[in-house]
Amino acid sequence: MRNGRHAFVPWLIRLAIDGQQLQIFGDGQQMRDFTYVDDVVEALLAAACRRESDGEVFNLGGERPYSIHEFVDILLGVVGGGSYACTPFPRPASNRHWELLRRFFEDQSVLDWQPARAADRSLRRTVEYTDVIGTTTGETAGSVSELCTQYPQVKAEIDRAIQSVLDCGVFVFGGQVAAFERGVRSVSGVPYAVGVSSGTDALRLALLGAGIGPGDEVITSALTAVATWSPLRTPVPG
Q1: Domain interval for residue 197
Q2: H/E element holding 66?
Q3: What is the CATH number of the domain that holds 68?
Q4: Of 87, 105, 137, which residue sits at a domain end?
């Protein structure tokens, strides 16, 4: 996470873990809703199993809205200390999110779903995960493990792997793919693994493996790339 332009939660978590001062725009009283991923998954499953959810759009939310100031206080408590400073907004801002937040709670009754994870518990699990990832990759708020910084560390290994494929002349399947599949099986603890050329092919194989065919209903996200739903329109073998 290079900055907070696209998502302020992981950015603040990264800064807090690294012991840097957090910056809050305005007075910190802006209201936001935080939903843990496990709760989102359970809501999606509930929507998939209920006919009354067909064609509906649901706004999911946590157990209650939190102000940014309250969120930061919880975060600093989770990481064991730290500091923050309030900074004026670079341009006029509004707190219109509150009206949207109220709608989240109206939508939950249709699904018979309620978020089960409180913000402090969810934040603690997220911080633990972020800390582990940072320790593994060397990622910090000031030094992000992007491809341009990762590549030099593994350049020799990548170059050797590419050269071995060029030398043997086997560009489809071959020993390298078999070794990759063995590695995936070992790391994942599964009996089978198949290397494919794209995520779209992986989704297509998953549909075939699940026995999904013509006439079956598949629920997917509308907020996604074409490659995600295109396997659903691809004819399956008869």
Answers
A1: 147-233
A2: strand 66-67
A3: 3.40.50.720
A4: 137
Q: What is the pLDDT of residues 35-56, one digit of tens each?
A: 888 888 888 888 888 888 877 7
Tokens, residue 105? 């709670």
Residue 142 lies in a domain: no
> What average pLDDT is seen over the chain?
79
Say how many domains are in the chain: 2
Say which DSSP state 53 is in: G
User: By the 8 A CB rule, do 14 and 75 touch?
Assistant: no
102-140 pLDDT tens trace? 445 555 667 788 888 888 888 888 888 877 655 545 555
End-of-domain residue from the set 114, 137, 160: 137
Residue 114 lies in a domain: yes
Rounded average pLDDT over 66-89: 89
- Note whether 104 and 166 are same-domain residues: no
Which H or E run contains 160? helix 147-168
Query: In this structure, is residue 1 part of a structural domain?
Result: no
Q: Are strands 66-67 and 31-32 parallel, antiparallel or unpaired?
A: antiparallel
Question: What one-character-per-residue DSSP string does 4-47 give?
Answer: SSS-HHHHHHHHHHTTPPEEEETTS--EE----HHHHHHHHHHH
Which one, of 71, 92, 65, lies nearest residue 16 by Cα? 71
Q: Does residue 45 belong to any structural domain of this protein?
A: yes
Separation of alpha carbons 202 and 176, rounded Å: 18
Six-digit token string for 39 = 């709760």
Residue type, 17: I
At 43, list the tokens.
Answer: 């809501």
For the record, the structure tokens of 116 come out as: 């089960």
Strand partners, 85: 23
